[in-house]
Design brief:
This protein is of the alpha+beta class and 412 residues long. It has eight helices and 15 strands. The strands form four sheets. A five-stranded mixed β-sheet has the order 7-6-5-8-9, sandwiched between helices. A four-stranded antiparallel β-sheet has the order 4-10-1-14. A four-stranded antiparallel β-sheet has the order 3-2-11-15, with no helix packed on it.
């Protein structure tokens, strides 16, 4: 009996436990539903929270246009519809059998500086275009442009400074300082000295103080060699790369002790260098006269030219005159210190007051040949020009222009 009762009690307990476990499972299921929903709500609410924390953040702009609202510092206008591109121009009809080609005309232009002065060196400034006739290889040319130039100059002062004699060294410096005193504020000048080699003391500058400082450095010449042709060739080669007209003030004895270049080579270089006018100033005349009188000509120019004669100096003068004549300059040979001031006043007047004649040559071949030039000054009616002074007396005048030029050479 007791066993039967005990078994009934156990069964009842088991049934109750099952009910309790079932209720617990149901209760847990009901609780998990709002929790997962809360997690989803939190996930969905994170972007809005971020937006609240950063209210200035903009949405990505659409494909065309700027922000949709008024938020943001910039407004990007919407792209309008662009008009269609214009149609390409019609190509010219190609004629059968005719090849494609292009035409380019290269017409040479020649500018000749001309100085017209009295025998005393005074510039004659009242001439007109009709007073000039220019000839190239004997054929008269038509003048296209004519003007009187009074503009800043571009010049190089090339100075011989070697251990020759004290008097020649001193006169070289005196001549250089005299030239520097004639410069104006807008002039461009470079200074080069030479003995056995060239030395650029100052490149092109408008600073007159820099030029004086460069000349102040010429105090202790070392060698007695004077390689004149090499220095002149190198200077002309540099000037050939400078645009516009240039002037070369050449202060030298004219004695060349170098062995690299001949007279023919330097003359060819002078002829082929364009737009350069050379003004040679021969120094040492007084010393030469003293040496010749006392029989010391062989020692007059230093140890490098030991044994030279007076004929060597005369040959040097002739070479300098040729340089001037070929380029339209003038040769000067001051004898005393006081003559240097007058010399450079004349040079300043020559290079600042001159006529510029421009023409297209009738011979337009680009063959690199040398063309001879001749400039005549006549009256407007074609007769001989007569110039009178204030007293009504006829005054003789001279026309100074370069003897020729080298035409350009066409590169194939």
């Amino acid at each position: 009996m007791f066993s039967t009762v005990f078994s009934l009690i156990s069964i009842n307990k088991a049934v109750r436990l099952r009910k309790i476990l079932l209720l617990c499972v149901v209760a847990l299921g009901l609780v998990s539903v709002p929790v997962s929903g809360l997690a989803q709500q939190q996930e969905n609410s994170q972007p809005s929270a971020t937006q609240q924390q950063n209210p200035n953040q903009q949405e990505a702009p659409p494909e065309a246009g700027g922000p949709k609202g008024d938020i943001g510092p910039y407004g990007i206008p919407k792209k309008g519809e662009e008009p269609p591109p214009p149609p390409p121009p019609d190509k010219p009809k190609k004629i059968e059998g005719m090849p494609d080609y292009s035409i380019r005309v290269d017409v040479p232009l020649v500018t000749v500086p001309v100085m017209v002065t009295t025998k005393d060196g005074q510039f004659i400034s009242n001439l007109k275009k009709e007073n000039f006739r220019i000839f190239e290889d004997g054929q008269q040319q038509k003048i296209n442009d004519f003007k009187i130039e009074d503009a800043p100059i571009t010049a190089v002062l090339l100075v011989e400074f070697a251990n020759t004699t004290y008097q020649m060294e001193l006169q070289a410096l005196q001549a250089s300082y005299a030239f520097a005193s004639t410069l104006k504020k807008d002039d461009w000048v470079a200074v080069i000295s030479y003995d056995i080699k060239s030395d650029i003391l100052v490149d092109f500058t408008q600073d007159k103080n820099a030029i004086r400082e460069a000349l102040n450095g010429l105090r202790m010449p070392m060698g007695s060699e004077t390689w004149e042709f090499e220095a002149l060739y190198d200077t002309l080669d540099r000037l050939d790369r400078v645009e516009g007209h240039k002037y070369l003030i050449f202060v030298t004895t004219g004695i060349d002790t170098g062995l690299k270049l001949t007279l023919d080579q330097i003359l060819k270089k002078v002829k082929t260098t364009k737009d350069v006018t050379i003004f040679p100033i021969s120094i040492g005349w007084l010393m030469r006269e003293w040496c010749e009188t006392h029989g010391y000509t062989a020692y007059c120019h230093g140890m490098a030219s030991l044994g030279m004669s007076n004929m060597d100096f005369l040959q040097a003068d002739n070479e300098l005159q040729t340089f001037a004549r070929l380029t339209g300059g003038r040769f000067y040979q001051p004898r005393f210190e006081g003559d240097l001031v007058d010399t450079f006043k004349d040079i300043a007047g020559d290079i600042r007051h001159q006529y510029a004649i421009t023409y297209h040559p009738t011979n337009q071949k680009l063959d690199g040949t040398y063309r001879k030039l001749k400039v005549d000054v006549i009256a407007e009616n074609g007769e001989q020009l007569k110039i009178r002074d204030q007293k009504g007396k006829d005054v003789k005048f001279q026309v100074i222009a370069r003897e020729g030029y080298t035409a350009k050479h066409q590169v194939e």
